[in-house]
Automatic annotation (TrEMBL):
A biological-process GO annotation: L-tryptophan catabolic process to kynurenine
Protein name as catalogued: Cyclase
Organism: Streptomyces chattanoogensis
Gene Ontology MF terms in the entry: arylformamidase activity
Domain of life according to the entry: Bacteria
Length: 308
């Protein structure tokens, strides 16, 4: 089914093509300036560090619903091997095969395309089987370190977890922003807690995957208006699944990644962070969420840390 006119209208309103020049390959990460990072670092109060990544394991979040996206397969390639002879120092080595977006990750700017184009009007066919992404590869992502803001939508609704059919709206984000007691500002990385990951943490991968709350088609305009640098949440699909508009699959992906050039993340564990922010009465922190520089990659695993 062709993309509806509503999608194209929103795309025009959030489009960042050419904003940072015709050769730009990092999109909204341009908004993370030295000044933004200095201000974020100055906001550290206690130094408490909260990890936000899920463990990389073979029985991870992937259920097989997405072809080719396999959970990490860990293999030992050497075990206490005395490679320099008997009695010398022994080494153990291992290898991992996994989808780059299998667990806690960033979607890169080539993860989706629409109408034959990628961010900044690059051709979608510049992604090839052997070379990966000729442009916009995840290795181009500049250091992803900025002020993080937790928008705890579930808590703003007075619940620990949103129901599976809940489409997170701009009004939900406004309410969570009010709860946070801060205004999202240019260069911030926004983390949206729905509580959905509680299903996975309880051992139910299927309930985690489907049905899932997630971002609605209207939220990219909210992020664009505030000049958000990147967005992540605690769901498998990022946007609501099944989709809010019948047969319109992954429109938020296309608006965020293709039109805005904004990294988006999934499978972030925001449970401990949510409790800590509620207890301390503040929802901002320094966030480090560096992309692994896989050349030509369309995404990357990430081990983000919030520093309060």
């Amino acid at each position: 089914m062709p993309l509806p006119q509503e999608f194209h209208d929103i795309a025009k309103r959030v489009n960042n093509w050419g904003r940072w020049g015709a050769d730009d390959e990092i999109g909204t990460l341009n908004l993370i300036t030295d000044e933004v990072v200095r201000a974020a670092a100055a906001g550290i109060r206690t130094g408490r560090r909260i990890p936000l990544a899920l463990p990389l394991r073979q029985d991870g979040v992937q259920t097989g619903m997405i072809p080719g996206r396999i959970n990490p397969l860990h293999t030992m390639t050497a075990i206490n091997q005395e490679i320099f002879g008997p009695g010398t120092v022994a080494t153990s080595d291992d290898a991992v095969t996994m989808g780059l977006q299998a667990s806690t990750h960033w979607d890169g700017l080539t993860h989706v395309s629409h109408s034959g184009r990628l961010y900044n009007n690059r051709p979608a066919d510049s992604v090839t089987a052997h070379g990966g992404a000729a442009f916009l590869g995840i290795e181009k992502a500049t250091p992803v370190v900025s002020r993080g803001v937790l928008l705890d939508v579930a808590r703003a609704h007075g619940t620990g977890r949103l129901p599976g059919g809940h489409a997170v709206t701009p009004e939900d984000l406004d309410a969570a922003e009010e709860l946070a007691g801060t205004r999202v500002r240019p260069g911030d990385i926004v983390l949206i807690r729905t509580g959905q990951i509680q299903h996975y943490l309880a051992g139910d991968r299927q309930a985690y995957a489907f049905p899932s709350p997630g971002l609605s088609l209207r939220t990219p305009e909210w992020f664009h208006a505030r000049d958000v640098a990147a967005v992540a949440n605690d769901t498998l699909t990022f946007e609501i699944f099944p989709p809010e508009v019948e047969n319109l699959w992954l429109p938020v992906h296309a608006l965020d990644l293709v039109e805005m050039g904004m990294l988006q993340g999934q499978n972030w564990n925001l449970e401990e962070l949510g409790e800590a922010c509620a207890a301390e009465g503040r929802h901002t922190f320094l966030l480090s969420a560096m992309a692994e520089p896989f050349v030509g990659g369309s995404g990357t695993p990430v081990a983000p840390v919030a520093v309060l």
